[in-house]
Amino acid sequence: MKVKDFVHKIKIISLIMDWPLPFNFIKLLVLVITSIPIFIAFYFAVDVFNPELRLISVIIFLLGRFADNYSTYRLIKESDNKFFEYGLNKYFYESNPTMSSHPTKSGLFKSILIIEVPILLVSSFIYPPVLLGYGLGSFVAWYNNKKLFTQLLKAKSLGKKIKKMILNGKKYGEINEYLDKRLNIVLNGKFEKPKKIFNKK
N or C: which terminus of the chain carries fewer CB neighbours within 10 A? Predict the structure, then answer.
């Protein structure tokens, strides 16, 4: 019996405790926010080579990419031996096509050098609003990573608890019962509607 035998319930409990945004919604939101500055600049024939716009675009891009990359780095740091031992790699993975599903620190650094630096250099000279849109969209990815990081910490903490129970000789049914109780507590705390109290006259 291993912790990964209970990983599905661990994931559900940690998910409900700190619900991230739906993945498809995140992709759509990033696409929309990234496209808005590009569309506005094109539609209104904005002087895209205005020095102030170029500077703002570069700053927003750098801030957005730093936030997203740092949040990704924090998730990578938590993807240690326990992460794989508990089977959490089945549910927590990188969706960026430029990186592996479970990237390393060196993989993240390579992605920055190969993808982001060329985008910065080329777009700053050709069409700066691309940087503005990309930077703004990156903040959405940062927010989702932030939620996932909290969820991952809670899942690992619960996995550690389950491992301790296994080492102490708890049976499969006992651990399942414990997880069911945890799930009921979380559900009641999160979604139970408050009861209305009416004063009788």
Answer: C
